[in-house]
Specification:
The chain is mainly beta and 127 residues long. Helix content is 0%, strand content 40%. The protein is built from no helices and twelve strands. It has a five-stranded mixed β-sheet, with no helix packed on it. Strands 3, 7, 8 and 9 form a four-stranded antiparallel β-sheet that branches. Strand 8 and strand 9 form a beta hairpin.
Length: 127
């Protein structure tokens, strides 16, 4: 049976939990987060897995959605959806190959049905 209601994400694990990660070349960055329902229970079974969203802000510019350039590696599926690990974390390993322009990339775990009301947000910087 699928979980219903609204969910919050507790935040991504290291290395992206404490600020922007600096990336100079191609890298796979793991985004691992827990989803909880309104009662604080882990959300493990969803009708539609959470998705990754990537916003890019060039130095001195405005943010633009560049999610369509996201490439998963390992955990993560086509359609930019997270996969559930055996530990109950939603994981997406993002390959930065297509994100090479200098600036900041902000990554969020979002839901396709607007159920995640407090998304996990992290960033990486290309220098």
């Amino acid at each position: 049976m699928y979980a219903h209601g609204v969910y919050t994400c507790e935040g991504f694990d290291p290395p992206v939990h404490a600020g922007a990660v600096k990336v100079k070349k191609n890298r796979a960055i793991p985004f691992n987060g827990l989803l909880r329902d309104g009662d604080g229970n882990l959300v493990l079974d969803l009708e539609s897995a959470p998705a990754i969203q990537v916003m890019y802000t060039p130095i001195g510019g405005s943010a633009a959605d560049v999610t369509d350039q996201a490439l998963p590696v390992g955990m993560g599926t086509e359609g930019n959806q997270f996969e559930l690990t055996p530990e109950g974390k939603w994981q997406y390993n993002l390959l930065t190959k297509n994100f090479t322009a200098e600036g900041t990339y902000e990554v969020s775990m979002v839901s396709t049905d607007q159920r995640i009301i407090s998304p996990c947000i992290a960033s990486f910087v290309i220098e």
